[in-house]
Amino acid sequence: MNTSIRYLRPAACYAEAPNLWINVGKTAFAYRDLGPQGGVPVVLLNHWGAVLDNFDPRIVDGLATKHHVIATNYRGIGASGGTAPLTIGEMARDTIALIRTLGFEKVDLLGFSLGGFVAQDITLQAPDLVRKLILTGTGPAGGKGIEQVGAVSWPLIIKGLLTLRDPKTYLFFTSTANGRQAAQAFLDRLKERKAGRDKGPTPRAFLRQLKAIKAWGQQAPQDLGRIDIPVLIANGDNDIMVPTVNSTDMARRIPGAQLVIYQDAGHGGIFQNHADFVPKALSFLGA
């Protein structure tokens, strides 16, 4: 198992980035590493059931033109060892330990969906660790409709099985022509990596993460006013998984937060609009 933090030949793109592992305590965490070494790295935190191959290559590659980017799995997901946590707080503690084990004293975080829950919790648990925060397709603890993610998702997951389509077609994108075209383009991008692909989530890990999401939705609201770093929030205007009103709510509660809402876009608004989102994210991180 490769536990090195650096490798000699940087990958040209995310589809070619080698799989790496690092032991955090007794658990081996899988990650991929891309972009120029040095400076403050951008750590990517992904959605419910996501493995390393679920990060959008256009967004990873775009960020890696200017930044050292690290994509990782949660414990118990994909090629990472251990058992998937039942709380967002535990995922946050795992990620803090991972970042410190990798040797970083300061990071930027980009969290999508579940990853946005974890990114908020990391920032509140370890405020000195996070320089800048990007929250996409996500919402706050106790946010509107978050505890209903399972109820919203299961019928569309079944629809995906019945129509032989990836459920993300229905969960992440609108049913308009633009949405359907964007969904297909996104799903095609996720297949660009041919060798060394990650393992899919086990049904047990998938269900344990769903319990963590539901608990986050039922949790008492956190004091987001304590987040005193630059924050960029982005979502589509028709997010059915983490309703868009949560993005507006976070922007209102986090001092100075920037808010971007994409029209005719759903939960995966940043994937549909990656050509606009990446320059905005680079500008935000570089300011």
Concise overview:
The protein is built from ten helices and eight strands. With 287 residues, the chain is an alpha/beta fold.
Low-pLDDT regions: 1-8
Order of helices and strands: EEEHEHEHEHHHHEHEHH
Average pLDDT works out at 95
CATH architecture: 3-Layer(aba) Sandwich
User: Under the CATH scheme, which class?
Assistant: Alpha Beta
Number of helices: 10
Percent strand equals 15-25%
Give the beta-strand count: 8
Shape, per Cα inertia axes: globular
Secondary structure category: alpha/beta
The span between the termini is 38 Å
The CATH superfamily is identified as Alpha/Beta hydrolase fold, catalytic domain
Characterize the biggest β-sheet: 8 strands, mixed
Range of helix content: 25-40%
> Remind me, CATH topology?
Rossmann fold
Question: Largest sheet, order of strands side by side?
Answer: 1-2-4-3-5-6-7-8
Rounded Rg: 17 Å
Count of discrete structural domains? 1
Structure commentary:
The protein is an alpha/beta fold. It has helices spanning 57-64, 88-101, 114-125, 149-163, 168-171, 177-189, 203-218, 245-253, 269-272, 274-286; strands at 20-24, 27-34, 42-45, 69-72, 107-112, 130-136, 231-236, 258-262. Strands 1-2-4-3-5-6-7-8 form an eight-stranded mixed β-sheet, sandwiched between helices. A hairpin with a 2-residue loop joins strand 1 (20-24) and strand 2. Helix 1 (57-64) packs parallel to helix 10 (274-286) and helix 2 (88-101) crosses helix 3 (114-125).
